[in-house]
Amino acid sequence: MEDVAGCIACDLTSGRAQLPGGLIHRTTHWRVEHCVGPLGVGTLVVKPSRHVVHVAALTDGEADELGPLLRRTSSVITRLAPSSQVYVCLWSHGPVHIHFVLQPVSEDLMSRLGAHGPALQVAMFSSEPGPDPVAVAHFADAARLEFVDA
Ligand SMILES: [Zn+2]
C-alpha cells in the first residue's frame, strides 16, 4: 500500500488534508512535517512516504535512512527550539501509519505541566491547544533552511 485514503498521515502527504507549515524536508523514503497535535511549536514528525504500520515492515532502504534522519531532525530542532531534551517517540497504534514524534522539551514546559516523558505528552493532549498555525509556519520556514545545512 502506498497511499491510503482516510489515513491522516497519507492524507497530509497527498494533500487531501491541509498540512500546517507545509512539507519541511524529504528524503527518498521519508518526510518531515510539523506535528498537527498539541505537543507545541517545534515538534516535528518523521514518517515514511508510503503507508507503513509497523517498524518491522520497513524496507532496507527505509531503515537505512531512518537513523541519520532522526539524528538530523533532532539536530535541526535543537538549533531552533530551546530545550533540555528532544524526545524521540513512536506511539503509533491501531495500527496506524508509523510516525516518529520529535519534541523539544524545556524545563519551563515540564515545570508548567508538572510532568515529563509520556505523562508530559498526556498532559499536553488533555490541556494544551493545538499549535498556533502562524508560529508553526514560521518554524517550518526556519526548519527548511536548517535542513539545507544540517
Ligand atoms: Zn498512511
Structure commentary:
- This protein has 150 residues and is an alpha+beta fold.
- The chain has a single domain, classed as HIT family, subunit A (2-Layer Sandwich).
- The chain has helices spanning 8-14, 60-80, 107-113, 117-127, 133-149, and strands spanning 25-26, 30-34, 44-48, 85-89, 100-105.
- It has a five-stranded antiparallel sheet with strand order 1-2-3-5-4.
- It starts with 7 loop residues before the first helix and ends with a helix.
- The structure holds zinc ion (ZN).
- Residues 4, 7, 9-10, 51, 97 line the site of zinc ion.
- The site of zinc ion has 6 residues, from helix 1.
Supply the number of structural domains.
1
Kindly report how far apart the N and C termini lie.
Answer: 31 Å
Annotated CATH topology? HIT family, subunit A
Count every helix, treating DSSP H or I runs of 4 or more residues as helices. Answer: 5
Number of strands: 5
Radius of gyration: 15 Å
**Biggest beta sheet summary:** 5 strands, antiparallel
Task: Please mark out the parts with pLDDT under 50 across 5 or more consecutive residues, or reply none.
Answer: none
Task: Determine and state the CATH class.
Answer: Alpha Beta
- Ligands, deduplicated: zinc ion
Helix content class: 40-55%
CATH architecture tag: 2-Layer Sandwich
Which series of helices and strands comes N to C? Answer: HEEEHEEHHH
Roughly what fraction of the amino acids lie in strands?
Answer: 15-25%
Summarize the structure.
Helix content is 42%, strand content 15%.
